[in-house]
Structures are given as C-alpha cells and as structure tokens.
Amino acid sequence: MNGPVDVLARYEAECVRALTRLRGLIQDGVLSQYEKELADLTQWHREAVEARAAVAELIERDERSERIIEALRDERDHARECRERAVQVLAGIHALLYPPKHTNAVGVTFKFHSPYVHEQMQALSDRIRAIPGEMFNIRSGS
After folding, report:
1. Domain ranges in the chain?
2. How far apart are CA 113 and CA 122, in angstroms?
3. 21-32 tens-digit pLDDT
4. How far is Cα 91 from Cα 16, in angstroms, rounded to an integer?
C-alpha cells in the first residue's frame, strides 16, 4: 500500500467509471428521457401557475360582481320606496276629489255636493302645493 497514491488512483478510477457510465447513458438516450420528463414537468408547472392566476382573476371578478349586484339591489329598493311614497302622495290628493257625476238607467244624474267644500278645497290645495317638497324628500331619501 502506498497510502495517498492508492487513494488518488482509486478516486481517479471511480471518476473514469462514472464518466464512462454517463457517456453510455447519453448515447443510450436515457438522459434525454429525463430532460424530456423535466421539460414536461416544467410545462405542467407553468400551466398550473397560469390556471391558478386565471382562477384568482375569476374570484376577483365574482367579488366585484357581488358588490355591483348589492349596489344595484340597494338602488332598486330605494327606487321602490320612492315610488311607494309618490303613490301615497298622489293617492292622498285623489282621495280629496269629488266622485264623478253618475247617470242611472232612467237618465237621472247624481252629483256630489259636500257640506265641507271649503275645508276640502283647502286640503286639496295644500296637498297639491306640497308636491314639490314631497318629491324633493322622496329623491333625497328623507
């Protein structure tokens, strides 16, 4: 035994064997198969990252859509409330009007005469004058 020279010779022989084996694998196409599998995995990883980004975009769009839908629901509910208040104002005015003349089958015409005509006309006038203020209140939501 020569000591360090023997160790170096064995290491050199092992490197030569590994290099020869590697050359054989390259010639047999084994390494190109690994490279192909690695390329496939890399492509799969890219596609997975792109898919994850697409899903994140869809989730963000869905959240934005939900916020828009909620805002539109609020606007719809407000518009319904405004319409109901406007109907109440107009129904209150309509309630103060005299009924139409009525003619029966015999040809007799009936006409309404209120003993409180001045009070009713004043109430009708007050309600009609209040319409602009009511419409402002309806639009402003108060």
Report:
1. 4-140
2. 16
3. 777 776 666 666
4. 104
